[in-house]
Amino acid sequence: MGNMIETLAERIAIQLKSINPHETKSVPTMKFGLILIINMLLIITISLTISLMIGTFQGTLLTLAGFLVLRQFSGGFHYSSSVYCTMTSIVGAVFIPLITLPNDFVTPIIIITLVLVALFAPQDMEMQSRLFKQNQTLLLKIISITIVSSLFFIESETLVKTFFVQALTLIPLKGGGKDEK
After folding, report:
1. Quick check: 50 and 94 in contact, CB under 8 A?
2. Is the pTM of this model over 0.90?
């Protein structure tokens, strides 16, 4: 699947470059951006299609939105392969709404999530956001903490689980982080 996505992205990038050679970025730059777009579209389309079949559309939509919002400010782990990223994202988006938390687990999970975000956010922002840079660590940390703190008022079990999973991706892995070393 990865080669197929990369081939498609490269073909589109070459076509775009041939249409407007002077006002477009380089083919490798456009290819990289197109791979991200294609992967995101695949994640959303496949996740929502599966969720329609199993009756969790609203929960999956909320999971995707919550993960995207928090990740934009907190960053997190990146696989070296877009295929792993796509598959993991689909599995998470589909299964998170299916997991039921006992009521007395919700507050402790929110607190654990807040601690993880406070300790480790932001992570790998150069791979994550064009809006912010790594040198805006304090601002990104405050925004991430604020987003997670909103769980005390929103009372969404789906977002509690989603933000917790996203916070787990912030924990630096043994060996450095960006890869499954």
Report:
1. yes
2. no
